[in-house]
Design brief:
Blueprint lengths: L6 H28 L57 E4 L2 E4 L21 E2 L7 E11 L3 E3 L14 H11 L13 H22 L5 E5 L4 E4 L2 E3 L11 H4 L23 E5 L4 E11 L3 E6 L3 E14 L3 E2 L15 E10 L19 E7 L3 E14 L3 E6 L3 E5 L4 E11 L3 E6 L3 E14 L3 E4 L8 E4 L4 E10 L5 E3 L3 H11 L20 E7 L3 E14 L3 E6 L10 E5 L4 E10 L7 E3 L3 E13 L16 H6 L32
Parallel strand pairs: 3-15, 4-16, 5-17, 9-18, 9-29, 10-19, 10-30, 11-20, 11-31, 12-21, 12-32, 13-22, 14-24, 15-26, 16-27, 17-28, 20-26, 21-27, 22-28, 23-29, 24-30, 25-31
Antiparallel strand pairs: 1-2, 6-32, 7-8, 7-14
Length: 663
């Protein structure tokens, strides 16, 4: 019998199913609570490209050149060596039973017998440089000091008065005033400058010859001139330096001590004063080989001028009063003025190879450098020093050791320039050739000192120097001159000039047998279609006013004791001009001018010494007042002129000599 009576088993099964369902629900709730939303992962773009930059980068622009014209470098076809002579024989060709002979046609025959060769054309050289230098150096100093020790103040104390210095400077500068000093700024102005200088030489020779203190030498020969006299050896500067400047200023170490007892009788002391010892120096060395060549050929004229003008002017008139009268005889004027000029002729000769039994060597070709237009090589240098050192000292001695220095000033202008360009075996000029070397040197010193005493000052004890000055002008010109120049052009030079002017650079056959060119297998040639201007100009000026006033006193404490040692120096000044020009010259070999050869040179050495009635004559000649009378009646200032400081000379020239080619 089937029945449903097992209720216990059914209940147990129901409970187990329910229990399992509950357990699963709990598990689902635990898993839900533990569930966390995963964050979004950012999108990857890779590494950022980093570029390093320099914000401080600087770009240096090139030098500004106004009005610059670009010209491409000239080119020529590449040349080959001359082909040797080759004998060419006809070749028989059988063509349909007929003999055809091929005739050899030479490309060019150079006259090498039966051989045929290709003649080499002329080489084209690099462009010739054009150099000009303008230099102006100016120094100006005013060092007018007043020193008063003690309670003394003399009346009518003048200070910084340069009126008399201005008068003396005018007289000195008038010596070279006949020459033009304007800076040429164009090629036409350069030609006029040479013409004016030649005329100025004639004028200066006529006006200055015979004036006392001035020596004029027209067309000086090679040699050394010192103060208008020829000598065999030039003086040395070290032998003429003032004693105060020649002595080294090195302090000595103290080796002991001295007791000073102030009792009114045995007071010892020293007063040292240095109010002079000024030195002004202008120095220049100029070397020019701008268009140097062994041989020259000029279609026009050759002009050569050389001039040295040197002037030393000084006033060394000292006044001694009261206690200084006894020192007047031992402190006479001792100023040395030296004008030294040296003309050196560097003319040489091209060495011709000695005969060896072999056939002589002559040029077979040349290298051509062409410059169209004028060539200007100019060096213009101006150096100027002005110093006013008029000091006033009122010194009192109280038994102490006193050292006062109000001088010892130094001014220096120095320059050295060398224009070293290419040299050529032959220089051909289609126009004129102008060559000039000019040196102007002027020294002006006004050293009128006043020495006085007061207040019962006793006899002077010690050393005193109020002069011992040096004025030094030294100039040297080394040039070639016109010894090797001849007028008239050989035919092959005329042919070369005509061909070069038309653009034909082939060397004429006449050069292949020119005896002056023997030993040169090939020529390095420069052709200039216009004029050549070669000028070296130097101007040097030193002006010094050193008029010192010294008054010495002794205080009442020392009225009965006069053992103070005074060491006073108001002179020992040095004004030095040194100039040297070394000109490479225009032709050490045989040179020709189609027109004329003109040479003009002059040497002027002047010494102007101011004198007053009652003073010693010193050295040299008296003041040449005739200069002003001959050269310029209105140049000398009026005696009633205001006492004002002298001003700098007008040395402002336009330095644009190459028409904006100098930046």
């Amino acid at each position: 019998m089937l029945g449903f009576g097992d209720h216990i088993s059914e209940s147990i099964a129901h409970f187990m199913g329910y229990f399992s369902t509950s357990v699963e629900a709990v598990k689902m709730r635990l898993e839900y609570r533990e569930f966390k939303d995963a964050p979004d992962v950012p999108q990857s773009h890779g590494e950022i490209l980093a570029i390093q930059t320099d914000p401080q980068m600087q770009l240096a622009p090139g030098t500004f050149v106004p009005d610059g014209n670009y010209l491409p470098m000239p080119w020529t076809a590449s040349s080959n060596d001359v082909l040797p002579g080759v004998n060419i024989e006809p070749i028989d060709v059988q063509l349909y039973g007929h003999n055809l002979y091929h005739t050899a046609v030479p490309i060019h025959s150079s006259g090498n017998g039966n051989g045929q060769s290709l003649e080499q054309g002329p080489f084209i050289g690099p462009e010739v440089p054009e150099t000009s230098m303008v230099l102006q150096q100016t120094s100006h100093m005013e060092d007018n000091d007043i020193v008063i020790t003690g309670n003394h103040s003399p009346a009518n104390l003048h200070w910084g008065d340069n009126a008399d210095l201005a008068t003396l400077s005018v007289s000195a500068l008038l010596v070279s005033n006949a020459f033009s000093h304007d800076l040429p700024d164009t090629a036409s102005g350069m030609a006029q400058f040479f013409s004016d200088q030649s005329d100025s030489m004639d004028v200066a020779e006529g006006l200055l010859t015979g004036i006392s203190g001035i020596t004029v030498v027209a067309s000086p020969t090679a040699g050394i001139y010192v103060n208008g006299t020829t000598v065999s050896k030039a003086p040395v500067l070290d032998d003429y330096k003032p004693a105060q400047l020649a002595t080294p200023n090195t302090p000595e170490s103290a080796t002991g001590h001295q007791a000073l007892v102030i009792n009114g009788k045995d007071i010892a002391g020293t007063v040292s004063l240095e109010a002079g010892s000024n030195i002004l120096v202008n120095e220049i060395v100029l070397t020019n080989t701008g268009t140097s060549g062994a041989h020259f050929a000029v279609a026009g004229n050759y002009y050569n001028i050389n001039a040295i003008v040197q002037t030393n002017a000084y006033s060394d008139i000292d006044s001694f009063g009261n206690g200084f009268v006894g020192q007047q005889q031992s402190c006479g004027p001792s100023t040395n003025a030296m004008n030294i000029a040296d003309f050196i002729s560097s003319t040489g000769h091209v060495q011709v190879p000695a005969a060896t039994g072999e056939a002589p060597v002559f040029p077979q070709n040349w290298q051509v450098t062409v410059m169209n237009g004028d060539l200007m090589q100019m060096n213009w240098i101006s150096q100027y020093n002005f110093l006013s050192d008029n000091d006033a000292h009122v010194l009192s001695s109280t038994g102490s050791y006193t050292t006062i220095t109000t001088g010892s000033n130094g001014m220096l202008n120095t320059a050295s320039f060398a224009n070293l360009c290419n040299s050529y075996d032959l220089v051909i000029i289609g126009g004129h050739l102008y060559s000039g070397n000019l040196i102007f040197q002027t020294n002006v010193l006004f050293d009128d000192d006043t020495m006085t005493t007061g207040n019962g000052t006793g006899a002077y004890s010690g050393t005193l120097s109020t002069s011992d000055n040096l004025l030094w002008n030294s100039a040297s010109i080394q040039s070639a001159g016109t010894t090797n120049w001849a007028t008239g052009l050989p035919d092959h030079y005329k042919e070369a000039m005509s061909g070069l002017a038309d653009g034909n650079y082939k060397m004429p056959d006449g050069f292949r047998s020119d005896a002056a060119l023997q030993g040169m297998a090939g020529l390095k040639m420069l052709y200039i279609s216009g004029n050549v201007y070669d000028l070296n100009y130097i101007s040097q000026t030193n002006i010094l006013g050193d008029s010192d006033f010294v008054a010495r006193y002794e205080d009442a404490l020392r009225a009965t004791s006069h053992d103070t040692v005074w060491d006073l120096s108001t002179g020992s000044n040095a004004l030095i001009n040194v100039a040297t020009i070394v000109d490479g010259g225009h032709g050490n070999g045989t040179s020709y001018a189609g027109g004329g050869v003109y040479s003009d040179s002059i040497l002027i050495q002047a010494e102007i010494i101011a004198q007053q009635p009652g003073h010693g004559s010193g050295q040299g000649q008296p003041l040449a007042n005739e200069i002003i009378a001959f050269l310029d009646d209105d140049a000398s200032p009026s005696p009633d002129a205001d006492h004002t400081p002298i001003h700098l000379l007008d040395t402002t020239h336009s330095v644009d000599v190459m028409q904006t080619a100098l930046a």
